[in-house]
Amino acid sequence: MVETARDTESTAGAAPLPPSRSYAWYALGILFLVYVLNFIDRQIITILAPDLKRDLGLDDADIGFLYGTAFAVFYALFGIPLGRLADAWHRVRLLTAGLAIWSAMTAVSGLAANKFQLAGARMGVGIGEATASPSAYSLISDLFPKNMRATALAIYSAGLYFGGGISLMIGGFIVEGWNEAYPQGGPFGLVGWQAAFMAVGIPGLLLAAWVATLREPVRGLVDGVPTQPSSTPFKGFFEELYAVIPPFTILSAMARGGRALAINLGAAALLALGALAMIRLTGATLQWICIAFGYYAVFSWASSLRSRDAPTFRLIWESKAFLATILGYGTVAFISYASSAFAPVYALEALGEDAGTVGFWVGGSGALAGFLGVILGGRMSDRLRLRNEAGRILVVIFGLIAPIVPIVIAFTTPSTPGDGDFIRFTVFASLGGLLASSALGAAAATTQDLVLPRMRGTATATFFLATTLVGLALGPYMAGQVSAMTGSLSTGVLSTLVIVPFGLVALVIAYRRVPDAAAHVIERARSAGEPV
Question: Does the model's pTM come out above 0.85?
Answer without folding.
Answer: no
